[in-house]
Design goal:
The protein is α+β, with helices and mostly antiparallel strands and 210 residues long. It has four helices and twelve strands.
Length: 210
């Protein structure tokens, strides 16, 4: 079953210049702010992954749904992330992988999801080639966080995330070099790294003309 949305909800995203098919090459990466301190391996085939960028209409406007990863994980412990993961050989494609991972991690099933298109492909420092699928969620879904990976699921107003004043550039030392990254702190949450980079890409597709 496919979720349906009224015209007003769809019009609110009309300026978003989404790709209607997954871009072949990545256009964004964790190295974008680090021309002198690149760490993404060259010449290695990146691992394909997909995430869902879920937007849910509320009375105050659209909210973005994000997850907080469990603090005990060996990778990306405690970080804020979109639901998603590696594309399996059994997945029919990018969208199916994003929907499968979202259902597994959050309990939000495909009947509540209306895929709209794709952001630019994003290459992470761990050499994952991530394809973000933007989608609207029909209210009424039930949240069931995957206990092993997801500590919490929360919403952030899209208006906050699309305000460039909140796109802070932070830095930290990594392997003896200073690296910069986007961060969007919100009510005690620290949205940063690849997740913030993809949100910044969404802002660029929505508002930047060049």
């Amino acid at each position: 079953m496919t979720a349906r949305f009224d015209e007003a909800e769809l019009r609110s995203l009309a300026p978003l210049r989404l790709h209607q098919a997954p871009p072949v090459e990545h256009r964004r990466s964790d190295d974008d702010l680090n021309p002198e301190a690149r760490i993404i391996p060259a010449g290695e085939a990146p691992k394909p992954a997909a995430v869902l960028v879920p937007l849910v209409p509320r009375s105050s406007g659209l909210n973005m749904v994000l997850t907080q990863r469990q603090p005990h994980l060996t990778r990306h412990a405690g970080q804020v992330a979109f639901p998603g993961g590696r594309i399996d050989d059994t997945d029919a494609g990018v969208v199916e992988a994003a929907l499968r991972e979202t259902a597994e991690e959050t309990g939000i099933t495909s009947g509540f999801v209306e895929p709209l298109g794709f952001l630019d492909t994003y290459l992470t420092s761990t050499n994952y080639r991530v394809m973000p699928v933007v989608a609207l969620l029909r209210p009424g879904f039930a949240l069931v966080p995957q206990e092993a990976e997801v500590a919490e699921i929360f919403e952030v107003p899209l208006a906050f995330l699309m305000n460039p004043a909140h796109h802070e550039r932070h830095a930290r030392e990594w392997q003896g070099r200073q690296r910069f990254y986007y961060a969007m702190p919100w009510q005690g949450r620290y949205i940063w790294g690849a997740t913030a980079g993809m949100i910044r890409n969404m802002y660029s597709l929505l508002y930047e003309t060049s």
